[in-house]
Each structure stands twice: as C-alpha cells, then as structure tokens.
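Figure 2 data, in text form.
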Amino acid sequence: MYSINDVSKLTGLTKRTLRHYHSIGLLVPKQDLSNQYRIYNDKDLLKIQDILLFKKLNYSLESIIDITGNPNFDKIASLENQSLEIDKRIDDLVLIKKNIRNTIKSINRGIKMKNEKLFEDLKEKNILDNENKYGKELRKRHGDNKIDASNNFYQKQSKANYEYANKLAEKIKVLLVEALKTDDIKSSIAVELAENHQKWIMAYWPSYSKEAHIGLVDMYLEDERFKKYYEDIIEGGTLFLNQAIKNYLK
C-alpha cells in the first residue's frame, strides 16, 4: 500500500495532479474510512504507467479515461498505431529539418553573394580612384597597355590576395619608420623593407620588372602626391624608400 506522498515520489506526479485524476475518475484509489486518506496499490501504479504513456502519445485525459475504463480496449493495437504515427512524425520532422538547413544555406549563399558583390564594387572604386589621382602620370610613364593590364589584373584579384596586399602595405609603413631610424639603406631592415615593397608591387602588377619598379619609386620623388603619401608616414621616408629599393635591386 502507498500513500499519496509515496506515489508522488515514485511517479514524479504532484499530489495536486493525483487529486485531480481522482476527481475526474481517471485514477480512483481506495480510501481509509477512518481518515479519508487515499491508499494506492500496485495496480494503481501500473495504471499510472499507462496514463503517463498515453499522455506522452498526446492522448487527452478524456480519451485516457475511456481507454483505461474499457475492458475490451486493445492496448497492443493502439500502441502499434501510435508507433506508426510516431514514424510519420519523425519523417515530417526530418523533412522540416531539411527545409530549415536549405533555408540557412540560401541565406548564407545570399550573404556570400552580397559580400562578393561589395568586394567587386570596392575594387572598381579603387581602380577609378587610382585613375583619377595618378592615371595620367602612370599612363604617360608606362603606357596605356601596361596600365590597362594592371587594372584588369587587379580587378580579377581574389579576396585573399587583396587582403594579402593590404597587409603588405601596412607592413611597409612600419618597416619604413624602423628602417629610416637606422639611416642605412643597406641595413637588414632596409632590405626587408625593399623586399616587402617588391612583393606588394608584384601583388598588383601582372608582370614585374626591376626597371619598372625603379621607375615607380622615381615617380614617388617626382610627383608630390606620391611623395606626400610616404612623407605622411615619416619625414624623409620617400627618398629613403627610393634609395633602399634601388640598392636592393642593383
């Protein structure tokens, strides 16, 4: 025999729930006539197992009352039907999950396409800005064919190469400041500066030559706009960079 407290601990059902089941006729235990306390037996515990099972299968309490109160109820057949329903539900959930994953992929693909479009637009803007600032001088010195080829090469750059070139540009600024402190164009850091400038140029030019590289750094000195870029980094930087690169390339 079990008290309501015992059954609550054994089944996890609250005493309030057990009282409710009693009031609606779903689970009616015997009562102690002397104190009206509910007394549950093993048969009641087995019935609670059935109730919990059918609840998990989404049966209403009214349906469970009808089922458990019907002596002709075929429990096995009912469970087999529920098993089929569960299989169908699983299939539905798998399909829903597949649709969710496809939606996520579509969203990510859209974001990727948007980012790729922004990257292409950025490269076009950089080409136009460069043409507006330096195009006339560059074309005069190197010719239209070479500049057009360079622009096409830049336009086809991957994002990885673009980021690589930008990192080189930032590294060159740092190296220029440190190299100028040595006041020696043959110092190891000056050589590293020249090497990184060469790598930076090669990231943008479809073909590289020492002569063209020297021509570019000479233009840094001749054109105030180029010169200002390096002088803004450090005073005297343009001339030092020019000499360090010429020393490296000789």
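Caption note: The two ends are 103 Å apart (CA to CA).
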